[in-house]
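User: Could you check the structure of this?
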Amino acid sequence: MAGQPPSGPPGAADLATVSQAVFRSALDAIAHPGKIVALSAVPEAIGCANPAAVALLMALADSDTPLWIDPTARTTALPDHLRFHCGCPVVDDPALAAFALATDPATCPPLSDFPVGTPEYPDRSATLILQVDQLSAGRGVRLTGPGIETQTSLAASALPPDFWAQVAANNALFPLGIDIFLADDRRIVALPRSVSVEF
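Assistant: Sure, the predicted structure tokens are below.
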């Protein structure tokens, strides 16, 4: 069908173009917290990592960004794929990560396990990509803050019961704290540390 994103993985020659498009989409999501952003092109899922999560990692990770991957995803081809295409080192300890992928929200470590930066270097914090089954606008928690004109509402399926409380505690650390992307199959939402959450 015209206008549908490709269902298969891009060829090697297209990887850079796809990554650039995903990077622009990630910037759009960060600039507008709570906005559901559709990715125009994504690679195939790899193991338990969905296409949007793989696309984000391919666009954001590099040799200078240690990556933590949850134990289930670590047993798939994903670590080798990312090492080959991005050169990113994979670490065992969430506290050492610049980027992190949790494919199952129920088994994601507490947000406080990831680096939140320091007062001198608040940018030395982690960005967590958390997979969800479905993102929905117009209901759920209320988000306010920079990049949101008044307020917006967001729901995501199968999050742990205390997830939004963890997000609120993380964002209370601002300018410290981690940044979060929620990713369903082909869409993403950014929850930067600057957003305020009411639930």
